[in-house]
Amino acid sequence: MNTNVVTAYKDAPNRTVTTGGVTYSYRELGPKGGIPVVFFVHLAATLDNWDPRIIDPIAQGRHVIAFDQRGVGGSTGRVPDSVEAMADDAYSFITALGFEKVDVFSFSLGGMVAQALVVKHPELVRKLVLTGTGPAGGKDIDKVARTTYWDILRATVTRSDPKEFLFFNRNATGKPAARAFVNRLAERTVDRDAPIKIQAFQTQLKAIKKWGRSAPADLSTITQPTLIANGDNDRMVPSVLSEDLHRRIAHSELVIYPDSGHGGIFQFHEKFAPVAVEFLAR
């Protein structure tokens, strides 16, 4: 293997590609060649929000690409107000890099975008990982905004990161896991991404609300091998929605972690990362 290959996300260089008048900011790592794994990030997140304990193990053997959606972080343009339009942007980005087939790893809002992408461009996606997410028309998805604003308020009062409230249970196991996660996100010290702007964040929330209130998509058209994962106490995108996805996507696999929330895969990264690596390598 080429010794120059970057396999630590904190060291992945920032790159850009321009297509359709939008310049997308992205990072890539892992050995080139084969089918890449493209990471679709969550609400309010930039390139700096991926847990290195999830991304690094996958990049040991795979070409990994993480990107900023239009209007987020280092990418230009305005954030679209629908999940479907975000999926169109993801398609533009992936095809601008010259890929005809990718695996998708998604979390939260990213998982909604991934579903919309697969339904519209089934030929593009070989395998699908959906974590902390739910289907269009899913029960209580339209309440995400309320939960999010409440937790941002709680975090502001306690001078902590909102993700500690949104992604983790506030109990004896959740609190240290939350702090460890937030600390891992700070491991990259150079060339960090621009934080999301308030207006972009509010537009994303609008898109999620629309997704929650829209008609359910026909997920029986998803024939790709699919891995679904969440914690058992997701306050943002209720855990029952992961079970709903599992029922509706034929032959999908479901992993639910105990005593954990929206960020269950981050709390249980030691268990989940090998599961994801094995699933994507199959």
UniProtKB/TrEMBL annotation:
One of its GO terms (molecular function) is catalytic activity. It comes from the Bacteria. InterPro entries: AB_hydrolase (IPR050471), AB_hydrolase_1 (IPR000073), AB_hydrolase_fold (IPR029058). Residues 37-266 form the AB hydrolase-1 domain. Pfam families: Abhydrolase_1. Gene3D superfamilies: alpha/beta hydrolase. PANTHER family: AB HYDROLASE-1 DOMAIN-CONTAINING PROTEIN (PTHR43433:SF5), HYDROLASE, ALPHA/BETA FOLD FAMILY PROTEIN (PTHR43433). This is Pimeloyl-ACP methyl ester carboxylesterase. It comes from Kribbella shirazensis.
